[in-house]
Amino acid sequence: xxxxxxxxxxxxxxxxxxxxxxxxxxxxxxxxxxxxxxxxxxxxxxxxxxxxxxxxxxxxxxxxxxxxxxxxxxxxxxxxxxxxxxxxxxxxxxxxxxxxxxxxxxxxxxxxxxxxxxxxxxxxxxxxxxxxxxxxxxxxxxxxxxxxxxxxxxxxxxxxxxxxxxxxxxxxxxxxxxxxxxxxxxxxxxxxxxxxxxxxxxxxxxxxxxxxxxxxxxxxxxxxxxxxxxxxxxxxxxxxxxxxxxxxxxxxxxxxxxxxxxxxxxxxxxxxxxxxxxxxxxxxxxxxxxxxxxxxxxxxxxxxxxxxxxxxxxxxxxxxxxxxxxxxxxxxxxxxxxxxxxxxxxxxxxxxxxxxxxxxxxxxxxxxxxxxxxxxxxxxxxxxxxxxxxxxxxxxxxxxxxxxxxxxxxxxxxxxxxxxxxxxxxxxxxxxxxxxxxxxxxxxxxxxxxxxxxxxxxxxxxxxxxxxxxxxxxxxxxxxxxxxxxxxxxxxxxxxxxxxxxxxxxxxxxxxxxxxxxxxxxxxxxxxxxxxxxxxxxxxxxxxxxxxxxxxxxxxxxxxxxxxxxxxxxxxxxxxxxxxxxxxxxxxxxxxxxxxxxxxxxxxxxxxxxxxxxxxxxxxxxxxxxxxxxxxxxxxxxxxxxxxxxxxxxxxxxxxxxxxxxxxxxxxxxxxxxxxxx
Length: 678
Description:
Layout: E1 4-5, E2 21-22, H1 23-26, E3 35-38, E4 44-47, E5 52-54, E6 66-68, H2 89-108, H3 116-135, H4 140-145, H5 147-155, H6 160-174, H7 178-182, H8 189-201, H9 213-246, H10 252-258, H11 261-267, H12 271-277, H13 283-303, H14 309-313, E7 320-325, E8 328-341, E9 344-352, H15 354-374, H16 426-432, H17 438-447, H18 471-479, H19 489-506, H20 511-516, H21 521-526, H22 528-549, H23 558-568, H24 575-583, E10 590-592, E11 595-597, H25 615-618, E12 622-624, H26 626-641, H27 648-677
Antiparallel strand pairs: 1-2, 3-4, 5-6, 7-8, 8-9, 10-11, 11-12
InterPro entries: Integrase-like_cat_sf
Organism: Caballeronia hypogeia
GO molecular function: DNA binding
């Protein structure tokens, strides 16, 4: 009787599945010529016995994806080249067993379909086990069936991630039949429970901190500078690219006499730019410079949308749209989620600001030049969201030598999957990373007072900030709020537009959020909209603690006096309890020109007056600080002095000024009464 198993893979809708596994005819392992991956046209991409499985056909964006079984190698960067050494008998056996285990996972694992990241997690465990098996001159079956050997192997695991991956793989294999699936009995029944306990005993993973405000502002400034510098010379740069492309047809041995890149830089006015950016005056350097600016554009998009790296990397060429209204233009980026739904790509949208739109525009200019070299034009079609990526790979220029493999049967172009921490971007990384000072550490301590920041080697005073792209997401969610948490003027200016857009489109009740984000609960959980909403009470609580609870100056106004009296009594404020009150909606706070407001919900006092002067008279939610009130009075006095005394505007503004002065008088009287009693 035939027993057919289909691959349980999370792959695009139009992908061609690998072979079905007829267990009855093959036994415990498929044959060596068993097709494990196919191109969309049905051509085999890899077979079971291949040392490298080509998973690129199953990537929705055509990115190079490989499953590598050369467990004895530390890196797999040259998968396109044939192996230079023959494998020993033991090594060949371990590779074959590893491939069989991967086939078991793909075809017989219970539960949800497997993504590429899930496969690589499992393969990383099997590679470690392969190294252990070769060192001890045993096979996989010997290792997996021996509780003593498995325990010895697991004792070498020193990270929570490694232990978790091994435990997950054990759980999957333990659910299989020892006779019909594995062919032997696992020796990990007791060890599995031990590993699970080890995972729970590991310290909690440290959450990625938001950037301190000065660091955040400096990084945004550096990104803007990089974009501006390239914008000035972009036409010259892309003209140089076109010129170099025309010279590629010259044989490499004869090219040097025709291709003096240094002279060409001078002709195109690019010598100074290359020198300042540390770009080598070679064809490879020209390509690297474009990769740099693509990385800058991607980081800027992340900074002004809150996208994850993968979401930004998968943006299509035609992602930007704009909605013009009187006096303002709203920008949106359309892309896709990182998850599939029954093999189909799910689309989503993000709001951005003019800064994000500018980065997309520059990235499109670079991409257009690369597509021109390829001989293609990025067409916009609703059904083909991913064929033309915004960040198309610069390797198509072939300035660093011809691509050693071409994904000719893929339905999408490759992306330039650049990571700022990788060696090719060392010069760019130096320009983007500010030096940490003591004020930055104090801010981190305010964000998480229970973390020993002074003992963390990644956050030492005097060293460069360890910039990671995912920091932009948490920083934007926390600081792009109207809580008043951001006191640094430069950062307030940099975030004012995106703060307005996120407040308009991501707030609860927003039609945009309902139609494009909240319609699917799974998508909403992954979207920056949820992070932004979750961060709102956190941002308010942090601003409240800094501006009210730990304020150095006395507080006035009804709510201010109430808080001041608690401080005078020495009442201790519990940070965790305060945060929970904000998260439950029992307390609220936002900064105002006069101090702050603690009203939960919308204010009914301000009316049409921008300064909220009516709040100064009898509002129970107002917190007044004399320092801020005095500053507002000075500014209002200058405004009143500049107006014509016979105008209606003069009388309105003069009334506001008088209200401020009267409020200051009341505050001073209260302060004097307090000092008399003291």
